Queue: 3 jobs
Job 1
Amino acid sequence: MARAPQANKRTLKASLAAEVCAVLAKQPGLRIVKIADGVDDNCSFLSDELPDGIEALDFFHATEHLHDAIAAAYGDSTLKTRHRFEELREVLRDQVGGVEKVIRALDHLRKQFPRRDEIRRCAAYSRKHRARMSYATMRADGLMIGSGLVEAACKRSSRSASSSAGCAGAEACRRSSRHSGWDQSERFEEAWALLAAEYQVEVTCS
């Protein structure tokens, strides 16, 4: 799903929640993996407004913060930064309890470089989201740890729609890009009903 920007993403959240519930009604045995970046609004939406499931901090966002912290210590684009980043990235991704090892490494850097705020922020960020960073366990279960494929699809839909339409037209284009997925999942009629209500207009004939 993709939508034009809106305060607090109200419509997108409602549409997504309705879609997930509709799918689960047909396939209640499906496992849900809820992935987002660390923005509080996104995390609270996943936890409070969607059905229960495994929650994960998008791996790319986690490693982006990790890289910034290491670069703050050793310098951007240095060999030491690249080596240490790749080392800790693999620990985070591949080792059970990897996030705890990364936090310890960041705490060590924090003591070495007490004035580098980026290191402190990354350590706090990792502590805050540690429960969502069990990447090795998720990979062992065959689950996604990143939202990159979904984000890329949404961005492609948004670019193609926005290049030829205004806000209202862009929304129509984005919806049309989902039709084939609904059709292939045999949910077209039901899914269309969820959206059609937004486009009901009272017409008076004189």
Job 2
Amino acid sequence: MSDPHYPVLASTPIYHGRILSLRKDDVRMSDGTVAVREVVEHPGAVAIVALQDDGQVVLVNQYRHPVRTFLYELPAGLLDMPGEVPLEAARRELFEETGLAAQEWSVLLDLYTSPGMTDEVIRIYLARGISESADRFQREDEEITMTTVRLPLDDAVARVQSGQITNAAAVAGICATVLARDAQWRPLRPTDAPWLGEQGRAAS
């Protein structure tokens, strides 16, 4: 998508990987100059705030190679399966990473993760009515060492504030859940609400 105020004069592919791609755009700035912008192309993702009836939120602890450490995160995954809608991806990821299912789903927020360098957008759902799935699940790669933790929602917020939870989607999702809870869940959107990922794909 090219903003008419910042037209893309040329776009050059640099690298195409299994998940990510990198391109170089020549962009006309508002003062008439031309600037080079490197853009990491990303398929998009979903994440889930799984909130149990007892007020505990389900998090995973997973190794992340780029930062060389384990992070507390929301169950999440890529939108990299052709034709899979975000809600179904969220159901699948919740099951694959935690073995859980949910009866009630709502859109909590949409988030550009790092718009200065990537077009990645993530849709974060609130899932309630949590239960153990009757199906079996198997983890792969970094997920083999993944562990699942449950924290009272307010404790999770405290861990955000103390710097123990630093994953961007987890921070945003946890804080947004508290705001939604305190507003009697009125800010929640239906699962078919339009979102940034659709806009980006329609314009590409």
Job 3
Amino acid sequence: MEALSGIERDTVKAVFRLSQDGEPVRTGDLAARLDIAPGSATARIQRLAERGLVTYEPYHGVELTDTGRVVAASTMRRHRIVERFLSDMLGYSWMDADRLAVTFEHDLPDEVLARIFVALDRPTTCPHGFPIPEPDSLDVPTLPSLDTLAVGATAEVALPGATNVDVAAFLETLGVRPGAHIVVRERHPFDGPVVITVDGHERTLGNTLARQVFVRSA
């Protein structure tokens, strides 16, 4: 296959991120995610379809093929390793690492990326707490949200780079940050709040907020 451009890889990555619910991705949602015009999103998708990375049906949506999923996993792996470099070696926050990684991650030769990975002692997660896919993986491991955990469950927090800045700041005041260990103490019924313990303190998160916090089993 002809080498993919950074724009093509970013588009595949965006399709993957928007398809977590298993439904086809609408081009309007993709355009909003990439901050481009809908017509430009359609043109990109048609190009990816020609290369066998996605299937596209007008008025139905976009889905990744198996080849596209491999590309998505590889692209996510590259992004998360670069984030780890920016965070661990250069001291950037997890949100800044996400923002800066996209500016140069596609310019790194595979050999350099491999050496960075080894120099970082082969990390298994990005600074946000999400798994780094294995090489040549068909998929990217996904994480459940906090609101799905049962009472008594223990977990580590993961927060997406797309988390609203104000939401991230509020969660920080609660101690709910990437890597924090939590225990679920109570779950109120009918979409009620979730009560957790974090850093020895009891905290209460509304259901809407709990759905924005992802977790890895501790």
